[in-house]
Every structure is written in C-alpha cells, then in structure tokens.
Write a structure and sequence with these properties.
single chain; 289 residues; alpha+beta; four-stranded antiparallel sheet; 10 helices; 4 strands
Length: 289
C-alpha cells in the first residue's frame, strides 16, 4: 500500500512539474510578445536571433523559435538525457505556440524603460520556472553544456558570450540603443532567474550520502560526464556510508536527482552554491562516439 502511495506521489510531482513547465513557457512568451518585441528589445540565444529574423522577414516568431531550436534538441538527445530533452521539447512547443497566441493582443507598453523592467522580470520568472521543472527554452544552453563537458568552459559565461555577440549584431541592425536595452533586460532576467531557480548562473556542489556509492558514482560519470570524489563516512545510527562529492552546473541538478533516485531512493542529498572553483574539479567525459 505504501509503495503505491509513494508511486502515486511521484506521479503527482511529475504532473505538477509539467504544469509548472507549461505555465513558465507561457509567461516567457507573454513577456516576449507584449513587452520586448513591440520595442525591438531582444532576448538572448535562439529567441534573440528569431526576433532579428522576424523584424527583417516577417516570418512568424513562433515558427522561427521552434525551427531554430529543433537542431539543438536533436543534437542533445543522446548527451543530455531523455527526460531533459522531452521536457525541453514540451516547453519549446508551448513557448512557440504561445508566441503566436499572444501576438495579436494589444501591446502592454511602448515605453522602453517599462518594457526592459517588466519584460525582464516576467521573462526571468517564466524561464526560471521552466528550468526549475527540469527543461530549458533555448537551444544555445545545450551548446553551452556541450562546451562545458568537452572543454570545461563555464555554462553561464558561454551563454553570456553568445548573447553579447547577438546583441552586437542587433546594434548594427536596429541601433545600439536597442542593443543596450537588450543587454540590460538580459541582466534583469538573469537576476530574476537566480531568485526563482536558486543560483542559476552558479556552479553547484552536491553531497550524496548513500549505501550505493560506487554504483551512483559510475552512473554519474557514465550519464553526465562528471567525476565524483568518494569518501568514507559513518552515521551515528545508520553506520558505514559512502559520501560522494560532485560539482556540476545548474541544468544538471534535476538530472542528478533523478539518476540518484533510480539507484538509491533512500540516499541523502544536499546541494549548495559554489562561489569559486580553482583547479579542474569539473571533469569532462571522454567522447566514446
């Protein structure tokens, strides 16, 4: 009976995560269409590129975001885990559809300062909810994860670099005041995501206390490309335990929790922010093709 209840509880959690995912994607789309697009203020990544193309060609923004995100989803299928890709695909589909639904509505404002502030806040809330639910809205983040695993480049800095390139291009196309407004929106959005998702641009340190230390460590390395430091511990009541220490990025937290749950549902996990990394603790897994 208790096993059925636990399973039912897990199913409800999963359903709730998809509801949150859909709500987040819709809030992000509302922000783009009702605050940013009317003032030609760009989001970063695929959405920013889509807004530029939309302004130059008038191809529907929803169609552009879905088409441009598709190659990143396909490329990430093998490397980033099935659940992450499925949730990202759902979020992107809802986001693209919502862009088309919100497009005919009356714009919230044409005031640039209001568009930057409120657009950035709503976009941060939407993206934060999607990430917290285990998905992502932008294919450039999958590129950042690939580069992180292959060349040990920080995810946050890689995304920022890509976005600066996009904003610079936007400056030449639409004027550098739009590029500066877009960059300001990006910083506001990032801070709001930090608040919603808890430490979105920071590395995370996970400590796992378990009876299945070697098995979990092997799975983390095999599926996530992360090495793990294994320590010996002893609980006051529970006795001998393995203590695993692993540093990873924000988008991998959900995948880590799911992986551990499959191997040892009784494992004790703590996740904390990492303010600075010195040395090569975050490893990349050799690509075995």
């Amino acid at each position: 009976m208790s096993e059925n209840m636990a399973k039912s509880k897990e199913n409800m959690k999963e359903i709730f995560s998809y509801v949150t995912l859909v709500v987040g994607a819709m809030i992000a789309a509302l922000s783009i269409e009702e605050f940013l697009v009317p003032c030609t203020i760009l989001d970063g990544g695929v959405v920013g590129i889509s807004i530029m193309i939309n302004n130059l060609t008038r191809i529907p923004l929803g169609v552009l975001t879905m088409v441009l995100n598709l190659p990143f989803l396909i490329a990430g299928m093998r490397k980033l885990g099935t659940k992450f890709i499925i949730k990202s695909a759902v979020a992107m589909a809802v986001f693209s559809s919502s862009l088309e639904i919100f497009a005919p509505l009356t714009d919230m404002t044409r005031d640039y300062l209001l568009a930057v502030c409120f657009g950035g806040v709503f976009l941060g809330i939407g993206v934060g909810l999607v990430i917290r639910s285990g998905g992502c809205l932008d294919g450039t983040e999958t590129v950042a994860i690939f580069l992180n695993r292959r060349f040990n480049l920080p995810v946050g800095q890689t995304v920022l670099f890509i976005n600066i390139m996009i904003y610079t291009t936007a400056g030449f196309l639409f004027g550098f005041d739009r590029a500066m407004y877009s960059l300001l929106t990006y910083f506001i959005t990032s801070k709001v995501i930090d608040f919603v998702e808890a430490g979105v641009e920071q590395a995370k340190a996970a400590m796992i206390i378990t009876n299945e230390g070697r098995k979990i460590a092997d799975e983390i390395y095999k599926k996530m490309g992360r090495t793990v430091t294994i320590l010996e511990g002893e609980g006051l009541i529970s006795g001998k335990k393995a203590v695993l220490y692993c540093v990873l990025n924000r988008l991998e937290i959900y995948q880590l929790k799911q992986l551990i749950k499959e191997v040892d549902a009784q494992a004790f996990i703590t996740v904390s922010d990492v303010s600075e990394i010195i040395g090569n603790h975050i490893k990349k897994k050799a690509d075995k093709g």
